[in-house]
Amino acid sequence: MKHLLPELHYAPDALAPGMSRETIEFHHGKHLQAYIDNLNRLIAGTQYEDMSLEDIVMKSGGAVFNNAAQAWNHTFFFDTLTPVPVPMPERLVRKLDEAFGSRENFLGEFAKAATGLFGSGWAWLAEDKDGRLSIVQKQNAGNPMTDGMTPLMTVDVWEHAYYIDYRNRRADYVSACLKLTDWEKVAQRLV
Ligand code: MN
């Protein structure tokens, strides 16, 4: 099965100024495309060839995992962004209150985790098997699915995600991502 670049559900300039058209063109059009091209090349003729992207993430290691997980993570990240600000549904607010004390505390703790993640990686909001929410920092291509958790939303903190628009100001980029997050979609992912 050949994996294809997922289409964005918004125009490439729709997230500006939080995320510019140029960033989308490089990040989605070049970085994500490269992970997908690498993945297709790596899995040809192997046990992974006919697996879904999620199965490859769960079952592989090494370069196959790195490229598959980067493809999955980016697809999820871009899908969760929206040009139209979406209020947090009550159901999600209640779960965040439970886990973090308040929605504001969650946003602060998430921003701190994303901004403070050392090197390249992803900050996640994830739900465990008991329905508890937590913030998870993952290096490189890491994804909380491999720990048995359900990803609810994520922010990519690889430098390629923010250097065009924000240079070294990762905190400003993270804050923009939180404003561009479709919280309705996040709530729909609650198990
Ligand atoms: Mn990226």
TrEMBL record:
This is Superoxide dismutase. Transmembrane segments: none annotated. It catalyses: 2 superoxide + 2 H(+) = H2O2 + O2. One of its GO terms (molecular function) is metal ion binding. InterPro entries: Mn/Fe_SOD, Mn/Fe_SOD_BS, Mn/Fe_SOD_C, Mn/Fe_SOD_N, Mn/Fe_SOD_N_sf, SOD_C_sf. Keywords: Iron, Metal-binding, Oxidoreductase. Destroys radicals which are normally produced within the cells and which are toxic to biological systems. Belongs to the iron/manganese superoxide dismutase family. Its EC number is 1.15.1.1. Residues 2-81 form the Manganese/iron superoxide dismutase N-terminal domain. The keyword ATP-binding does not apply. Residues 91-189 form the Manganese/iron superoxide dismutase C-terminal domain. The keyword Metal-binding applies. It comes from Candidatus Cryptobacteroides excrementavium.
